[in-house]
Structure formats: structure tokens, C-alpha cells
Design goal:
Residues 305-327 have a biased composition (Basic and acidic residues). Residues 100-126, 300-327 are annotated as: Disordered. By secondary structure, the protein is α+β, with helices and mostly antiparallel strands. It folds into two domains: 7-135, no CATH class; 148-318, no CATH class. 24% of the residues lie in helices and 23% in strands. The chain contains eight helices and ten strands. The protein has helices at 74-81, 84-91, 130-133, 168-181, 214-220, 250-257, 260-271, 301-319, and strands spanning 15-22, 50-58, 61-71, 137-141, 152-162, 204-211, 225-226, 229-230, 233-241, 279-289. The strands form two sheets. Strands 1-3-2-10-5-9-6-4 form an eight-stranded antiparallel barrel. A hairpin with a 2-residue loop joins strand 7 and strand 8 (229-230). It is elongated and about 90 Å long.
Length: 327
């Protein structure tokens, strides 16, 4: 019987990681230098705590991709980050375009050496170097309330707030953001109708950043150090969804993105919470679920022999039906 992937029951707020990498437009999925049973999950297939995965492409820069993983617990992610599987995972997700990378049309299977960009400071050790850990933007769900998965067409908003995540001032900043943006409908979004008391949960999802990556530092700058003191800050992420279940389509989002008045409506909404927000970044993404591919089942010789005997038995009785008996 084919093996099925077991999904763990969630017992705490979910942890999400984003690993950004370069993916050519004509290449649908990342490839792995070593053959794996599952062509999409590769070295992740047996990693404990890895619940689901998505592949994202930035709308305005389609070669900028992200491998997005939901973890059952932060501890599972930390164990993975110290594993050989993590090193292989990162090596096959190059951060920049490389002349050594072959497109799918040039090679039907990845070369063991040609498709890997060496990690800075990498060695023969199975543990990834410290620089590799900065490849993970690590997010923690803000609440345990029901939420929609972040997939389809998505508007990502990242807000910078001074202070530690657990500081009261930071919590107040988060509450102010939610109060302003949870009911906010940017221009072009007004036609979307929902039902139910908490339908807003299906159009916005909020996360705290608990570990920054290189992207976060490139957008908001490096953390400043004054003597022994380190600047504390928190990045709060709002994923504004365009859910098809409520009538939204990528064309609706594209029209809104191209509308100067829609852009101004975002600026007006965010300006109401600046401060405490000191900076913000907005990106547009297309996100799809990574399919769980099971390889074709290969029967044993004994099973094949049994099937042949069964086929012969059926064929014989089809050609030689038993005479009907009348009582």
C-alpha cells in the first residue's frame, strides 16, 4: 500500500518559514541534486513537524520565489535547521541566478554538482553554517483563531515597530494595526462579499516575525548596536488575501494594484498607525500548495503472479459459463 503523509494535529500557534530563492520563469518547481521519493518535497519528505508547504512567486518579479513551510512547533524547525536535510534544502534553492544553473530545457535531470550554489562558510559538516540560518524568515501566528491558509493571490504587508515582541508597547502597536486593517478594504476590494460573523478571518492573516532573514534586513536595515546594547524591533506581517470563495480573482487584484487611488488608500490606512509603525513594505505574491506526490506503486512478483492467475480464472469463466440450473 502506498505510504501517506501524516498531518499532525495542531496544539499551538503555527510557525511559518519563508525561504526566498531564484527560480527561472520557465521552471515550475525547484529540483533536487539527489533523487528523492517525492519530487516536490525532496529532502523535506520525512522531516518531523513539517506539516504543509507552498511555493510562492512574486508577481512583480516572477523569478523571485519562496518555499513556504508550516511547522507544527518551533522546536521541530530548530531541529531541522541543524540537520543535513536543511543543508541540502538550502543548497538546492539558490539565492541568485547562477550561470551554472541549467534550465529544464537544457537538462532533464539536475546535475549533482552543477545545480548547487555553495553556502557561504559551508563545510563537510551536516549542520548548516550560521549564514544559512538567515535564509529563514520565521513567522509565528498572532492568535490561535481559525484562519485561511495563505495561498492564491496575496498582498504581503510587513510593518516595522520598535521594541521586543513581548513588550507592551509592541502589543499595543499590533492591536492598533489589526483594528485599522482588519476591517480595511483597499479600493478595488469593496465588491467582495462574505458571510458569517468572522468572515474577515478569510481575508487577513497576521504573524509576528520571530527570526529575520536577509530580505528583512535589506528592507529595514541591519540591527543597530550601541556598545553592548542591541536595538530591538519587531516586524508584524499582514497577509491580505484575495479569496476566490468571496469572488476575488487575480484580475481584480491586478486592477487594484495598477490604480493610483487604490495605492493611496493603503497609504492613508497605514498613515493612521505611523507611529508606532516606523516603516512598511508591500509585495504581491502568487502562492500555490506544493502537491504531495506519491510515486507509482510497484507490485511484487508474488502480487503480479496472483493477478495473472486471477485474470486467467476470470477469462476462463467468461468463455466457459456454467449452465443455468432451474429449480
Amino acid at each position: 500500500m502506498a505510504r501517506t503523509k501524516q498531518i499532525e494535529k495542531r496544539s499551538e500557534r503555527g510557525v511559518i518559514t519563508w525561504t526566498r530563492f531564484h527560480l527561472p520563469v520557465d521552471q515550475e518547481w525547484p529540483t533536487w541534486a539527489v533523487d528523492h521519493e517525492n519530487v516536490h518535497f525532496g529532502p523535506l519528505i520525512d522531516v518531523e513537524g513539517m506539516r504543509k508547504a507552498w511555493l510562492g512567486r512574486m508577481v512583480d518579479n516572477p523569478e523571485q520565489a519562496a518555499y513556504i513551510i508550516e511547522w507544527s512547533a518551533l522546536g521541530c524547525l530548530e531541529i531541522f535547521q541543524s540537520s543535513a536535510a536543511c543543508l541540502e534544502f538550502l543548497q538546492n534553492l539558490p539565492q541568485i541566478k547562477s550561470s551554472n544553473l541549467k534550465s529544464p530545457s537544457e537538462s532533464s535531470s539536475p546535475s549533482p554538482a552543477g545545480n548547487i550554489l555553495p553556502l557561504e562558510g559551508a563545510s563537510s559538516s551536516s549542520s548548516p553554517p550560521a549564514s544559512a540560518l538567515s535564509r529563514f524568515l520565521t513567522l509565528l501566528e498572532s492568535t490561535q483563531k481559525p484562519k485561511s491558509d495563505v495561498e492564491g493571490r496575496v498582498t504581503l504587508n510587513a510593518f516595522l515597530v520598535p521594541g521586543k515582541r513581548d513588550d507592551e508597547s509592541t502589543r499595543k502597536a499590533y492591536q492598533a494595526l489589526r483594528a485599522e486593517l482588519c476591517s480595511f478594504q483597499p479600493r478595488g476590494f469593496e465588491f467582495i462579499k462574505g458571510s458569517g460573523l468572522h468572515w474577515q478571518w478569510h481575508k487577513t492573516t497576521w504573524f509576528w516575525t520571530i527570526e529575520e532573514d536577509k530580505w528583512a534586513r535589506s528592507k529595514f536595515g541591519e540591527l543597530e548596536k550601541t556598545g553592548e546594547n542591541i536595538q530591538h524591533r519587531t516586524i508584524i506581517c499582514d497577509f491580505h488575501l484575495w479569496p476566490r470563495k468571496f469572488g476575488a480573482t487575480p484580475k481584480h487584484e491586478e486592477a487594484a494594484a495598477a490604480d493610483p487611488e487604490a495605492k493611496q488608500s493603503w497609504n492613508d490606512a497605514v498613515s493612521k498607525v505611523m507611529p508606532p509603525v516606523t516603516a512598511w513594505v508591500q509585495e504581491r505574491w502568487d502562492i500555490v500548495r506544493v502537491p504531495y506526490y506519491e510515486p507509482p506503486y510497484e507490485p511484487t512478483e508474488e502480487e503480479l503472479e496472483h493477478q495473472r492467475e486471477l485474470d486467467e480464472f476470470i477469462e476462463y469463466h467468461n468463455e466457459n459459463p456454467e449452465p443455468e440450473t432451474h429449480s
